[in-house]
Fold these 3 entries.
Entry 1:
Amino acid sequence: MALVLCVLEITALVVASLMMKPSFLLSFLPEDVRIAAKDHPEPPKSKQILAYLIFAIFMIAMIGGIIFVGMDGIRSGCGFWKLTLRFMVVLYINKAFDILVQDQWLVMTVGFYKKIFPETADCEGWKNRGFNNKKQIVRIIAYPFLCMMTAGLFMLH
């Protein structure tokens, strides 16, 4: 399930990024890049709506994947800790994919967003591979607690 969600996420990200409102997309990028691209023109509203629809479909798929993992765990007789472990595997595989493939490869190595925002080509932020380390560490620390809460909710039902 984790790998399916990773494929859906990268597909949605690459396709929707080309049509999203720049301010939303820039919020995930280094600060100097955000400043350099703040006046980047917005795509037509119809493309923005399509981008957010793609993003919404991915979010529904992510929630559906978590529900599937939980329901399958309950059907398989998993207890609280085994169900927590299942959720952790899904989220940590997804987080590793996010860090390695999306942040390090797509953003930093390939320069995908430099192509969308050419006015940012000379920004130092593109060289800072740790631009969002704090956000990632907070999520990595929070995941076990989120997984325990999710497992607890499934155990109640």
Note: The CA atoms of residues 21 and 45 lie 9 Å apart.
Entry 2:
Amino acid sequence: MRCMFALYGCLSAWLCRFVAVVLTTSQARCRGLIEQGDVMQLSGRGVALSIIASVLFAVVPGYVRLLAPLDGLQVFAQRVLWSMPAVLLLITLSRQWPVLLAACGRVRREPLLLASLPLAALLMGIQWALFVWAPLAGRMLEVSLGYFLLPLAMVLAGRVFYGERLRPLQRLAVFCALLGVAHELWLTQAFSWVVMVTVLGYPPYFMLRRWMRLDALSGFAFEMLFMAPVAIWLVLQWSPPQLFSQAPQLWWLLPGLAILSSLAFAAMMAASRLLPMGLFGILSYVEPVLLFLVALLFLGEQFDSAQWLTYLPIWLAVLLVGWDSARLLIKQARQGL
């Protein structure tokens, strides 16, 4: 047990050092690197951080299996409660307290913003609960399919709600994805609710966050604050009696889950600041690929061979969107030169 707490202490110290480095990368420093001709160095760091974030997020489903006797709802509740100190740590180390206080001022002055925060917390809470419940219920493959479809759902949301025009390759990608969806509907006579919640739950959340105009850390802190009462109620009502006496390893495993989530969040934030939005979007496809492999290789979930005709068109759609984004980035880079 002493070794475990020593390991936890080392990880906490490394988290502080990691966050202090990646989240204090200022816009001025980024501009300085660009002026010095170090754009490739900047992009290299961003790519590495994005991949690290995807790997850490993909570790979470396997990590959740270690948290017995907690079920999915209890893991969700504990994750929320243990993540709150981690969020405050991120804000402190990134020197974002003035930004958070300014956001609090906006919340006091704007009733609509205050009213929207519980809705944002609800939408994110559903996704958090689903993500930690799925590996315990053997439904992680369905979550990975939802994450594969999510970028395409975002493209369609942009077209429908913001009038964004689809480029030819994007239209072809949407058509391929629809073929995969149609095959799944024909195969099962109903699309999995897990996939539907993943695909349809995130676009309203991102649209709401876009309207709220809150920075990532402040919005995350508000969401944790509004999820906390639900998490406390779940722990008080449904937590196994004498939980930490029965499973003392949870004293370090649960903070470890918060550390893992915080590391992933910090890496994702840093990558989003260092990379062009298009390249950052392309790299977001790494996570569903890793989730798919984790579900098959480590969680022991079964892949029905009949589902190849569902996955292949969707994977082709992902490749088309990635190719289209890469072409656009190269074109913009050449025009910038």
Note: The first helix runs from residue 2 to 23.
Entry 3:
Amino acid sequence: MRELFRRGARSRALALVAAAAAMLASAVGMSGVAQAASTYDSACFKPWSKTTAVVHYPAKKPPYRIALANGYVGNSWRLQMVESLRAYAEQPQVAKYIKQLKIVSVGNNETAQLASIENFINQGYDAILVEAVSTTGYNRVIREAKQAGVILLPFDALINSNKVPMINEDQVQLGQLWANWVVKQMGDKGRVLEIRGIEGTSVDRDIHDGVVSVLKHYPGIKTIDVIGKWDDGTSERAVANAISVYGHFDGMIEQGGTTGAVRALIDAHQKMIPVGGEGENGFRKLMAKYASQGLHGLSAEQAPALSAVALKAAIALLQGKSLPQMSRIPIPYVTYKDLKAGVNYYPNLPDNFFAETSIPICGIHITPQELLAHQKG
């Protein structure tokens, strides 16, 4: 993720990846150590480490039946993630491979998600994309999918397993990027407000680990944690409550719901502070408006189009192509100095729209117009 990323400490996520590489013999479909030349579209699907294994499945004849077993859908990111999947699946070069795309969202209910995965397996789907509700508890469905010849492919919110292919941006690096930015802007003393996501998910855990790995080196910085659930309204209330208790903050790190978090600063008549936050269009509009008043923001996106990358990976695997067991997708970001209306933020689009709609390095090109038309449809 460019030169701004420097790993300060190994996270549990990387420990899991290392463990996965050490257990090649028992992992599903593993066939050695991933090398750039030996896997499909290596510019997009980068091995997580030099020891990441390669996944390979027997080829099946298209078209395919593919499902998404989604968990939480109560925020704009998850909604746009689903819309991105549908929009990408309808593009002509992709649609020819798909016989059926089925999407089920179950909320934060692990039992319901496991049941939905089992139903998809029993119904003969070829591949099941998974936005995991929890990091554990999936061993049974992994075994059932293997026996049925079904590909399970978690993305974004991952599970603790080396037996299925997985796709994500590096959440630890995302947390490090935000934390390093805030420290660079505010200095090495003061109070930082960290607004976390949904408890129990790998995304929240790993981003927080990244933040901690940076801030622990600055004893003069005190961190206050609140829960925002990646939602504007929840984050706005959480920040407002934190301000009422602690008063002024010198920096803020927000996993998602950044527009609401910044609005809470404005409503409380707080002095603008540096913010490391998500890629919401509203946050970027506020960055453009208040940059001269001190809102020196960095907007780095966990791209909703990861769902499209996961679909691309599933189709490749079903065609018999090889991929890293754990793929690292580059993270797009902009600072307040980089903003360009109509390019990386959109003054006339909703605040809860995520501005980075495409992942060009992966060949994923989805326009805002496609998403909005699909949303209206």
Note: The first strand starts at residue 30 and ends at 33.
